[in-house]
Amino acid sequence: MNDTTVSNSILERLADELGDLTPEARKAATYVLENPHDVGVSTVREIAQAAKVKPNTFVRMARQVGFEGYEDFRAPFREAIRNGAASFPDRARWLQDIRKSGDLGGLFADMAEGAIRNLEDTFAAIDADAMQAAAEAVWNSRHVYTLGVGVNNANARNFTYLASTGMTQFHAIPRPGSTAIDDLAWANQSDVLIAMTCRPYRTEVIEAVEVAREQGMTIIGISDSPASPIIRAADHAFVVAADTPQFFPSSVSTVALLETLLSFVIAVASDEIVTRVEKFHRRRHQLGIYAEDPE
């Protein structure tokens, strides 16, 4: 087990116990869940100041999840940083410095390394059984609504497009001219909502998840922190790594996770899915949508 995985297991324990903590300890734990790299580089006083709690709050929080104190708690996070898991503190300024120096080769290498690390960290923290359970919920549902706004709107539509080659019950929301809440007006316990948002979390996604919960829908949440409100509200929760040298969160892991979820849906589906996919692509060939190879 590598040290990044060790620190991830600590974060999972924190997320599981979040609801049992006192309000102040919950503030400390939430700060750790949303800023895990700060743990490895901060003293207890520094991180307490950043989280706006007293230093003893972090000590008590660490003890509650099984450590002797804060120094013992942060040791796995420090090791993860030594293994290359730290993020850049000021990404936009760093990019400008790279551009001024003319060293875009370094940027290329860092982007590639970041993408690979995000994939490794994301898939290392996901259990195949959990993915299968989510896939079975999708396949057995009446309708599947995939919700993303901003860059995640494109991710939601890409997932829905791929699914439509073999299935008809998938809907990317919000639809043009509509709102996510309105798009869920007739959804119920027979339906699934796949919702995604990364920090800073979008309020319309959080509100739609709350509505979906009230209507009895099964919720699959995808976000970048165990403390994310949509992760905590989800029946099937997946945390993706979204770090990047850029100033915007990376979508690499989100796209890879959605593609994996779809592959699991196909794997648990009935045999008719193969016939559907073949029929869909045969129709495309017949309509001249694909360029045919020359004779």
From TrEMBL:
Question: Residue span of the signal peptide, if any?
Answer: none
> Residue limits of the HTH rpiR-type domain?
8-84
Q: Does the keyword Transcription apply?
A: yes
Q: Which Pfam families match?
A: HTH_6 (PF01418), SIS (PF01380)
Going by the UniProt record, its keywords in alphabetical order are:
DNA-binding, Transcription, Transcription regulation
The highest taxon in the source lineage is Bacteria
Where is each SIS domain found? Answer: 134-279
Q: Does the keyword DNA-binding apply?
A: yes
Q: SUPFAM superfamilies, alphabetically?
A: Homeodomain-like (SSF46689), SIS domain (SSF53697)
Give the PANTHER family listed for this entry. GLUCOKINASE (PTHR30514), RPIR-FAMILY TRANSCRIPTIONAL REGULATOR (PTHR30514:SF18)
What's this protein's name? Answer: MurR/RpiR family transcriptional regulator
Q: Which organism is it from?
A: Thalassococcus lentus
